[in-house]
Amino acid sequence: MTDQLIDGLYREGAPIADTKAPTSVPVERRWRERQFGARLVNPANRRKISAIIVGTGLAGASAGATLGEAGYQVKSFCYQDSPRRAHSIAAQGGINAAKNYRNDNDSTFRLFYDTVKGGDFRARESNVYRLAEVSANIIDQCVAQGVPFAREYGGLLDNRSFGGVQVSRTFYARGQTGQQLLIGAYQALERQVAAGTVQMYTRHEMLELVVVDGRARGVIVRDMVTGEIETHLADVVVLATGGYGNVFYLSTNAMGSNTTAIWRAHRKGALFGNPCYTQIHPTCIPVSGDYQSKLTLMSESLRNDGRIWVPKRAEDCDKDPRDIPEEDRDYYLERIYPAFGNLVPRDIASRQAKNVCDDGRGVGPAVDGVRRGVYLDFADAIGRMGRKAVEAKYGNLFDMYQRITGENPYEVPMRIYPAVHYTMGGLWVDYDLQSNIPGLFVTGEANFSDHGANRLGASALMQGLADGYFVLPNTVNDYLADGPFEKVAEDHPAVVEARASVQDRIDRLMSAGGTRSVDSFHKELGQIMWEYCGMERTAEGLQTAIEKIRALREEYWRDVRVLGAADDFNQSLEKAGRVADFIELGELMCIDALHRRESCGGHFRAESQTEDGEALRHDDEFAYVAAWEWAGTGEAPVLHKEDLVYEYVEMKQRSYK
C-alpha cells in the first residue's frame, strides 16, 4: 500500500483481481467450467451446515428456497413483517431473457453485448455473459412456479422492448412483474419453512457482521418489535439486502430500504465496489413539494408506447398540452437518437430530460421556481391500438398515476422526471459472489458485479433471480465443502465485541439528546447528494459535498434527537442507525465520484463530455473497478483497483443514434 494521500482524500492500495472466473477458456464456457470445477457437498453433510441469508427480495428469497431445498439449514432475516414486502415487489416492467421468441435476432451473446454496452464498458465480461446465459432458465423456473406472464393469443409468452436494446426480450406480467416473481420466490421459500430447512425471522434488522478468524460467521440483529439484541451464528453469511438509493432521501425505493447491512460489512473489511454508480430512472412522477418522503416510479415499460416530449418554445409550457400542435412539440429523444428513440438507456434519457428542463422548457408546476417535468404521451398509442388494448397492457400503472396526481393519463399526457432508482455499486464480489471476506457472499443489488456504470431496464429482476436460483447455489458449495466449520460460541471474543459495538452505538444514539430529528438530517444529506452527486457532477461540487457531509456527520452525533426507548418498538432508533450509515456512505460516494475523472453511464462528470454532451470515458485511465477499503472513521479510505479486460466486446464510445 502506498503512503501517499491522494488529493487529501484517499490512499491507493494494492490492486485486486477476481481469481475465480476460468479465463483460460472462452467466455461461453466459463460458467460450465466453474460449475464443474467447484467442489460439492454431499446431501448428508449439507444437513450439518448452516447458512444465514439477510434479505427476502428476489435474490434472498430464491437463495433461501434453493439452499433450503438442497438440505442446508438456513436462517432467513428481513426487517419487513413478511418476506413478500421486500422492495423487489415494486419492479414493475419486466425481466429480460435471451429466448428469441420474437425471432428478431436475439441471442445470449446479444444480451451479453447489450448489457456490457449499456453499462458503458465498466462491467466484467465473465459475470455479464453468465447472467445472459442463465436468463432463459429463469423464465422456465418461474413459469413452472405459476408466475402469470403475459401471453400472446396463441398461448406463447409475450415479450416487449426495454431501453437500450432493439429486440423484444422482456417478459412481463402486466405492470406488476416484480410482484408476481416475488410471490413465486416467496412460495418456494415458505415451502422450505414448512419443511423445516428454513427458519424465518421477520421484523429483524441486521446491525453487525460477526467475523471470526477472518471468516464471516454470523450476524447481530435487533428484534424490531421487542428491541432485543440477538446473536445468530452460522457457517456462511449471504447478504441480499438491495441497494442504497435512499442515501438521496428522495428515491423510488421503499422508505425502509437502507445500506446498513452492507455498510456494516464494509466497516468489517468487505470492499465496496464503485459506490458512485447511481442510476437515475427517467420515468418517475415529479417532485411536487417539500413535504414528500419518497418518489413513485412509472414503469419503463411505458416508454414502449408512450412518446416523450416538451414544447419547442418556453412560452408554451403553461399551455394545456392538448392545445399544443404537433409542429410545436419537441420529441427530443426521437430527434436526437433516431435509431433508439424513446428506448435509449436510462442514463441518457434522464440527462436529456434534465437538459430540456434546464433549457426552460420543463412542464408542470414550478418547484423552487423551476419546472421539472416532461410529457409521456399515449395519444398516439390509444389512436393506434385503442384504449382497451392500452388498458390491458398498462392499466394498473395508469390507475396508480391518476390516484397520485389526480390527472387522467388516458386524456392528458403523464408528467415524468428522473429520480434516483437503482445503485450499480455495492460490495465487491468475485465470480463466485464471495466478497473479500471468506464466507461472506453478496447477491442481487447488494453487490456491484453485473451492470457496470448503468443498468439496462428489466435486468434487476434477472440478476436477483439468477444469483439466488442458479449462481450462488453452485458456488457456495465450493466454500462449504470445507465445512462444517468449528462451532463458534456466543462468548467468543469476536462475537462479544460485535454485540458490544451494536449496544454501544444504540446507547450513543439514545443518549445524544440533541434538538434535530433524524429525518431532518436525512433530508439535508439527500439535498447535498442530489445537488452535488446527482445527475451531473463536477470536481468543485463534489469537494463541496464532502466538506458539507463531514460537517453534517459531526453535527449528527452532537445534535440528533432519538425519541422512545431502546428496548421497545422504536422506529426513530431504526432510522437513526440507518441515517448514520447513509452519511458515511455518502462521503465515500462523493470521494469515488471525485476520483473518477471521467463520465460513464450514470456517473456524469461535467468536465468530461463529448461535443454533443454525451458521456466521455477515459479508458486509458479508468477501465477498472474501484474497490474501496474502510480505514476507520475520519480516516482516508484505501482504493484497490481491479482492471477490466475486454476480449469479446470492443470498448468504444456508446452511440444510440
Automatic annotation (TrEMBL):
Cofactor(s) demanded: FAD
**What's the protein here called?**
succinate dehydrogenase
Q: Name one GO cellular component term.
A: plasma membrane
Question: Does this UniProt record's set of keywords contain Nucleotide-binding?
Answer: no
> What's its catalytic activity?
a quinone + succinate = fumarate + a quinol
Q: Which GO terms describe its molecular function?
A: electron transfer activity; flavin adenine dinucleotide binding; steroid dehydrogenase activity, acting on the CH-CH group of donors; succinate dehydrogenase (quinone) activity
Q: Name one GO biological process term.
A: anaerobic respiration
List the top taxonomic levels of the source.
Bacteria, Bacillati, Actinomycetota, Actinomycetes, Micrococcales
Q: Could you name the domain of life of the organism this protein comes from?
A: Bacteria
Organism, scientific name: Georgenia satyanarayanai
Check the record and name the NCBIfam families matching this protein: PRK07573.1 (NF005749), sdhA_Bsu (TIGR01811)
Active site per UniProt: 346 (proton acceptor)
Enzyme Commission number(s): 1.3.5.1
Swiss-Prot/TrEMBL keywords: Cell membrane, Electron transport, FAD, Flavoprotein, Membrane, Oxidoreductase, Transport
Record's Gene3D superfamilies?
A: FAD/NAD(P)-binding domain (3.50.50.60), Fumarate reductase/succinate dehydrogenase flavoprotein-like, C-terminal domain (1.20.58.100), Succinate dehydrogenase/fumarate reductase flavoprotein, catalytic domain (3.90.700.10)
